[in-house]
Amino acid sequence: MMAENPGETRPEPGILPARDPRQPADFDPVALGRTLLRTIRAGALGTLDRASGMPFVSLTNVATDLDGVPLILISGLAAHTGNLGADPRCSLLLAGGGKGDPLAHPRLTLQCRAMRAEDPVVRRRFLARQPKAKLYAELPDFTFFRLVPETMHLNGGFARAFDGDAGLILSPLADRSAFAELEAEAVAHLNADHAEALALYATRLCGMPPGAWRASGLDPHGLDLVAGDRVARLDFPDRLDDPASLRLALKRLAEKARQTM
């Protein structure tokens, strides 16, 4: 269904509508939304104040789970933790930022339901993206949450708006345990034996400056890279769920990167 404002679309849940001809031909809301979701390291968390019911917004560090669901680590003393305990409904704003007008840069708003998470994969993924959080992750009053998104609103600039089912930018897993094992082994192997390839991915394919690039995470749609506070995202040409396809894709991407030198 077409929205009233040019450049906005409102699809049925889970269905990506045909491209709005008023939007630029290169606007891909799924690709852009997934990139913002997987690369932004901090976001504005909106909860409902448990006393007044009024919106309450705070800043939180963010990572993503294997399936793309945002992860946060918050203290039991924080106001937003109490708010989520009373009402799990929340919203998360992820904005890329950059030079010039902040509103000229893309941003993603997700409407979510918060769920406490004790899965060790959640902990591993979060600390790989937010290593400084190790200082307080062991404290007894800190808890990991999965913010399971239901809807998304993407603003990618003029005539680049999209509203739809957040599932469009997630990576649902048929076997979470199997993929978690694959990811852990692949990330460890890349960091131990393929530093050159990781650097090439970041600089040649992602356009990032040179640095001590490492793999921080892997999901069916791409590889996450970090170098200090810098984050890069290497998207796979196709969804990958098995070791053989992953090895072949990473090899081909390394070859592609070398060809640009």
Structure description:
With 261 residues, the protein is α+β, with helices and mostly antiparallel strands. 30% of the residues lie in helices and 29% in strands. The strands form two sheets. Strands 1, 2, 3, 4, 5, 6, 7 and 8 form an eight-stranded antiparallel beta sheet that branches. Strands 9-10-11 form a three-stranded antiparallel beta sheet, with helices on both faces. Helix 6 crosses helix 7 (243-259). The longest helix has 18 residues, at 176-193. The radius of gyration is 19 Å and the shape is globular. The model is unreliable at 1-13 (pLDDT under 50).
Which key phrases capture this entry?
single chain; 261 residues; alpha+beta; eight-stranded antiparallel sheet; three-stranded antiparallel sheet; 7 helices; 11 strands; disordered N terminus
Question: Layout of SSEs?
Answer:
Elements lengths: L28 H11 L2 E7 L6 E7 L1 E2 L5 E6 L3 H8 L2 E7 L11 E10 L3 H10 L4 H4 L4 E14 L5 E5 L10 H18 L1 H11 L8 E6 L2 E6 L2 E6 L7 H17 L2
Antiparallel strand pairs: 1-2, 1-5, 3-4, 4-7, 5-6, 6-7, 7-8, 9-10, 10-11
Helix pairs in contact: 6-7
Termini separation comes to: 46 Å
Q: Total number of β-strand segments?
A: 11
Contiguous uncertain segments of 5+ residues: 1-13
The residue fraction in helices comes out at 25-40%
| Percent of residues in β-strands | 25-35%
The shape, in one word, is: globular
> Can you summarize the main beta sheet?
8 strands, antiparallel
Structural class: alpha+beta
What value does the average pLDDT take?
Answer: 91
Q: What would you report as the Rg, rounded to the nearest angstrom?
A: 19 Å
SSE pattern, N- to C-terminal: HEEEEHEEHHEEHHEEEH
Number of distinct helices: 7
